[in-house]
Amino acid sequence: MYTISYVDRTNLNLALSPTISSMMHDLGMSDTTKGQSFGIFFFGYLVLQIPGGYLATHWSPRKVISLCLVGWGLCAIACGLVQTLGQFELARFFLGAAESAVFPSMLVLLSNWFPRAELGRANGYWNLCQPLAIVTAAVLTGVLLQRLHSWRTALVLEGLLPFVWLPIWWFLIRDRPSEAKWISPEEREHLETTLRAESAALEPVKSNAQEEKKRFPIASVLAAFCQPVVLVLIVINFFHNSLAYGCMTFFTSSFEGHGYNAMQNGWLYALPFVVTAVLMVVVSRHSDKTNERRMHVAITYVVSGVCLIISASLQDHFWWAYFFMCLSIPGPSVALAPFWSIPSETLPKKSRGAVMGLVNACGNLGGFAGPAVTGWLRDHSHNKALPFDTLGFGILIAAALTFLLPKTAARTTA
């Protein structure tokens, strides 16, 4: 499901490449407006993050995501039908709004199913959707653009994918183990018992004030938002997404002038995300094995930032620059599993969905800032390395802030 979501986001990276598609010319874009148009998605992405996380916690993540599948399919098709830059920006905004409830709902769904000993791997395997989607979108979009010579047809065809997947999602997914008929009663009881015990351990001892908050759940959610750790999570996620989407948007610009066709550009764009998928599995498994999250996030960010800065300094040596970019791009995705395990393992269950929605919503403004700042610096700076240096230093700041997050508690054995 989320792989399809990322296809509808990332197919633009090739469609907006002026050497293989006429989209920028047709809509009258510069690098600055390209970055802004790509990033406006994340203003829409603010809209339903918190309500989506709250509804997933108190209603049904399966049903919330089903509604989102319909909404983002319509908006993704609209992106291929626009005639002006303004219409495209509007379609991108509503695409972000339609997808915004999906991420916190999925985090709630996973925390409903997987105990702490497995949560890092569960988050890691689920987030494989991101590199897999980018590889899929890069190759598929490259083929479509080369064969059809129409960015509009490519976007519309890829926008139909959510409607194909909707019945599969609706009939196969259940909100929690107690609703699933395809696992044994023993497995079901083990999961429910373990998850209840872990959830109870995170709940504070109830006071009269907390009993009062139960009558007013919004007050409880607002109190959770005011924790200092939430601000730290937001800032880290902001720099994380700035690098991820800044590189994603302008990575193909490094291929310009080397004579590659649309399909070759697709494969060059896809390779770093193949590396990403492998590293995500390795890091998430090691994080679970060691029951450690913060250091895994910090080291991943440091490697990503340093390699991006080195790549930027080697702009005149294509293959060396490409090599270090292949080591930098995986960083944000590889850090996802241990990063999102921290709030999943340290926040009370009742406020978890809304808080993670807030962190993802505000942090994803980096998805606007990264492409917008990178595009502006490309247009107004005579230093080709400066845009990527800026993103690299940002992720190094995020690495330092990681040590302000709470440590994962030692596991208890039954």
What does this protein structure show overall?
The protein has 414 residues and is an all-alpha fold. The protein has one domain: Growth Hormone, Chain: A, CATH 1.20.1250.20. The chain contains 24 helices and no strands. The longest helix is centred in the middle third of the chain and has 29 residues. The chain starts with a helix and ends in a 13-residue tail after the last helix.
Strand content: under 5%
The residue-averaged pLDDT reads 83
Runs in which pLDDT lies below 50 for 5 or more consecutive residues are 205-213
Give the termini distance in whole angstroms: 34 Å
Helical content class: over 70%
Total strand count, please?
Answer: 0
Number of helical segments?
Answer: 24
Q: Find the CATH topology.
A: Growth Hormone, Chain: A
Shape: globular
In CATH terms, what is the architecture?
Up-down Bundle
Using only CA atoms, what is the Rg? 21 Å
Total separate domains: 1
Report the top-level CATH class.
Mainly Alpha
- Write the CATH homologous superfamily: MFS general substrate transporter like domains
